[in-house]
Amino acid sequence: MKRHLTLLHSYYFLLLRVSAVVWLSLLCQQQAVAQVLAQPASQLTDVASQARQFTLANGMTLIVKPDRRAPTAVHMLWLRVGSMDEVDGTSGVAHVLEHMLFKGTPTVKAGEFSRQVAALGGRENAFTSHDYTGYYQQIPTHKLEDVMRLEADRFGNNQWSDDDFLKELEVVKEERRMRTEDNPRALMQEVLNASVFVASPYRRPIIGWMSDLESLTPDDARSFYRRWYVPANAAVVVAGDVDVDQVLALAQKYYANLPSRVVPQRKPRQEPIQKGIKRLLFKAVAEQATLTLAFKVPTLQSLDDSLDNDALALTVLAAVLNGYSGARLERALTQGADRVADSAGAYNGLWGRGPQLFMLMGVPAPGKTIEQVEAALRYEVARIARDGVFESELNRVKTQWVASAVYKLDSVFNQARELGTSWVLGQPLDANERLIQRLRSVSAEQVKAVAEKYFADDQLTVAQLVPQPAEKTRKLRTIPPGSRH
Prior knowledge:
Layout: H1 16-23, H2 30-38, H3 41-44, E1 52-55, E2 61-66, E3 72-79, H4 93-100, H5 112-119, E4 123-128, E5 133-140, H6 144-157, H7 162-181, H8 184-196, H9 210-215, H10 218-228, E6 234-240, H11 244-254, E7 278-285, E8 290-297, H12 309-322, H13 328-333, E9 341-348, E10 356-364, H14 370-387, H15 391-408, H16 412-424, H17 431-440, H18 444-453, E11 460-468, H19 470-476
Parallel strand pairs: 2-6, 7-11
Antiparallel strand pairs: 1-2, 3-5, 3-6, 4-5, 8-10, 8-11, 9-10
Helix pairs in contact: 1-12, 1-15, 2-15, 4-7, 4-10, 6-11, 12-18, 14-18, 15-17
């Protein structure tokens, strides 16, 4: 629905820069591969070096990145707050509050924000993840001041009635029904996260548990707004056909006068070490069984050389397994007369504000079992742990990474998004360049080493979707009172 770019599941929007490695099809032939890898990353992403960062008087961050190729600009407001900052009993409040930011201020009526942006010739939306909340507008450059004025107003002066909140809450509940409760794989993923994590707030769904949504109050959202929507917890990112000094002057005019407040201290909520395999059988109406293996793995904390090499090597491992047409999992599990799976995949969560997972996924082929798919997935990782990977595989993966970074520069929206996500994670302005440089240094030996190190049972949670007949499940399902309208 409009204004909602929340991830289908917990982490995936935050890791779009990483998923390009996993999903982008091969862009170059062998000669082009060598040419691309031979170029310095600084030449491939030199536009990134033009970004400038400032801190306004009230603690708000401003990041500006000029790109003169088209007369448009992207204006984004990022909050370093998401569903992981909620407390039990109010899950979903960060996402509900995102909806409420469109419900007006003392000077802008509900719905008027979107109408005014459209009248300016722009488009706008918002998104919520575990780690952050964001709002954006893409407009003709000469309309930038108008959207900065509008966004600063709703950031600092958001207000709405109890009735407006309760009406919008029903919209969010219906969104949950459509995106999660009517999707067996999404439901299984939600329960998997709740099973994998014990202390980490990543165990809660971004959209919230239905029981929490049922009891959520207007004051819950107002309290969350007052607590986290403070200048020192926010960043304005502007990319496009703009002048840095002019954008800074506009930010000082519209944002710098917003009252400063202290950002609340966050509790660490450290995830305890898992000490044994967990298995989850999830029953739901579905045509096919599915399997997910979730291994706890290290998070990339720093882009400094020689630090967090394992997190980067795990990302390369996921790409070797599933990063291009004809990669290892596709060849071994889904091709041939005796194929074991209809589909198979691998994914590594590289970084975030919370702990990350390496996932292996598979859907059994007709006549094959979940157990056969699990054995086949784990065998492919074990084979790399034993025999290593080929340099040709590494070159193909690294080329895709570099190529995706180059092509992303064609979009000022992607440039602004990368700067915003880097700010949320406390990374420098040139994070993407440095990430590419670090990736290019990952060796075959490092990939082999992480395949040996992180795929034992102690850090593993297995989730299996067990298909159920529709009639049987309908009788067993309990629908919360008032959840259908």
